[in-house]
Specification:
The chain is α/β, with parallel strands linked by helices and 289 residues long. Helix content is 38%, strand content 14%. The protein has one domain: Alpha-Beta Barrel (TIM Barrel), CATH 3.20.20.140. Helix 8 links the parallel strand 8 and strand 9. It is globular.
Amino acid sequence: MIVDAHYHLDPRLEPIDRLLAQMREHRIDRVALIATVCDPLRVGPLGRKFAQAMRRALAGAAPRIGQLLYRSTVRRSGRVSFLGPGAAIYQRPDNDAVERAMTAHPDRFAGWFFVNPRAPGALDELSRRLRRPGWIGVKAHPFWHRYPVSELDGIAALCQDLGKPMLVHLGAGAQRGDFRRLPDRFPRLKVLYAHAGIPWYRALWADAAHRENVFVDLSSPYLDKALRYEALRSLGAARCLYGSDGPYGYSAADGGYDHGAILGQIQRSGLPARDLDRVLGGNFVALTA
């Protein structure tokens, strides 16, 4: 079974019909949808070079410079940009759109409920939604929504009680990037860090190696092939999940998103068949059971 654990539903960039066709082409059984969190984000050639330089600095000998570059992608005005015009960040992502897609295709889609703890009534709405079919857990973005990880404590407690995992995209700095807080305070909560734990990478992997409740996904151009393979070696197949972060980052021949790009890298990683099955879908099934 192949499950994409991290995909943003934005029909403006990829209509559902194309997504389903790509799933058939690449033999992807299920996709875990996340509500889009911003206006359509398009990264040009200069932006791609910027992102590459940022990734190299974060993973190389200049992590502090990398973190400065990383922080610069989110503006105080509430926009995200990679040296381009930028896109407005939504304070309340459209979870209803995800629920409609799941209802229409329950055998193909599951959903991460995107929560911003600063939105009025967020915890009450989350409590109701997580009890509905299809919702597998919570997506949180301390970086783009600009809040400390500590503000997720109430949400984490609810998820721990309900047995639902959390998918978290960390920021830089001690507050928005505190990757130890949730695993420390909620030892029964399964925490999945997006994009192999950017911007912390190896520091997060070293910490996660001593825990049983921390996982990473391998999605997004925030990683390249070398970093994906290093994450697999550092954490082992039992802690890593395939994800794409589509429809962002990898272009297909028709100009749409290439769902085979990251998938192919993982399939060619040399993992034994049993471990490959874990990364491509088995870990997701166990995490969301």
